[in-house]
Amino acid sequence: MIIDSHAHVVMPPQSFRFMAELIGGRANPSVPPKIPDEAVRKVAEEIVTIMDSVGTDVQFISPRPYLQMHSVKPARVTELWTRHCNDIIARVVGFFPDRFRGVAGLPQYMLDSPAGACVAELERCVNELGFVGCLINPDPTESSALPPPGLGDPFWHPLYEAMTRLDVPGLIHSAGSCSPRESYTLKFINEESIAVISLLQSDTFRKFPNLKIVVGHAGGAIPYQMGRFRSWNVRKGEKVTFDEQLRQLHFDTCNYSKESIELLLKVAGV
Questions:
Q1: Which of 16, 26, 68, 224 has the highest Cβ tally under 10 A?
Q2: CA–CA gap between residue 129 and residue 161 (Å, rounded)
Q3: How far is CA 260 from CA 73, 158, 180, 183, 217, in A?
Q4: DSSP label of 137
Q5: Cβ distance 187 to 141 under 8 Å?
Q6: What gap in Å lies between CA 175 and CA 182, rounded to an integer?
Q7: What secondary structure letter does DSSP report for 219?
Q8: Is residue 128 helix, strand or coil?
Q9: CA-to-CA distance for 148 and 21, rounded, in angstroms?
Q10: Among 37, 102, 22, residue whose Cα is nearest residue 67
């Protein structure tokens, strides 16, 4: 079976009108659209057709990250949009239960703790909608302000506790970028790289030994700069090698390069 663990839902056109209303009205008004089944099924069928053409059996689908609006004020904007995206994903999975699984977007906002709305939405998605994981954005400010602490900081522990309690993994995947010198594509790679080092330099996996973290886009830059971090561990006198530390994490292969994937398998393991 071929599983695409890093895929994003295609939203029907009505959803983007709702997005524009949320941004324009700053979540007031905030009534989500009633989208007919045929509109949701149509976009899902288009994805299934592509999956069939390339031999993909199952996709794990999440909201499209750069559209998550984590830095748009007020926090209610992303709360409503995230819930809407997750509900659309649940409907897509319902139409094609053998082809899709849901991965929850979280209503992260700027420097707000993930202990509140994020944990509540994760619980709803797992317990009520049957989702199998969630996205984690290391920088909900989207480069518009000083970001929250790295993913190895206790700031994130309420989310990790919920993930382990619900037994679901998290896919590290940043969202948009408000920086004029950093596209969202570059933001993805930078945040994934920072996240890897922050997690491996912390006691996160000692506190949460059953925590499952998947790093998107094949680990950002880290697997391709292994020499620097191997020597760093030696200079610091670490008891375990950087290679051993890296194996606490999981990586997807979404980086569009056969050569890079081969290197990833070599340094990070299958």
A1: 68
A2: 20
A3: 38, 34, 28, 21, 10
A4: -
A5: no
A6: 12
A7: G
A8: coil
A9: 28
A10: 22
Q: Residue 86: in which H helix or E strand, if any?
A: helix 75-95
Amino acid at 64: R
Q: What is the pTM assigned to this prediction?
A: 0.95
Contact 21, 29 (CB under 8 A): yes
Beta pairing, strands 250-251 & 170-172: unpaired
Nearest Cα to 102, choosing from 90, 94, 114? 90
Half-sphere CA count of 260, side-chain side, radius 13 A: 16
The residue with tokens 């594509």 is 185
- At residue 83, does pLDDT exceed 80? yes
pLDDT for 43-66, tens place per residue? 999 999 999 999 999 999 999 999
Residue with tokens 């699984």: 101
Tell me, rounded to whole angstroms, the distance of Cα 223 from its chain centroid.
Answer: 19
Q: Using DSSP, state whether 9 is helix, strand or coil.
A: coil
Sequence-ordered list of residues with C-beta below 8 angstroms from that of 121, at least 6 positions apart, any chain: 79, 82, 83, 86, 104, 105, 106, 107
Cα 127 to Cα 122: distance, rounded to the nearest angstrom: 8
Residue 117 clears pLDDT 80, i.e. is over it: yes
Is pLDDT above 80 for 29?
no
CB of 162 within 8 A of CB of 127? Answer: no
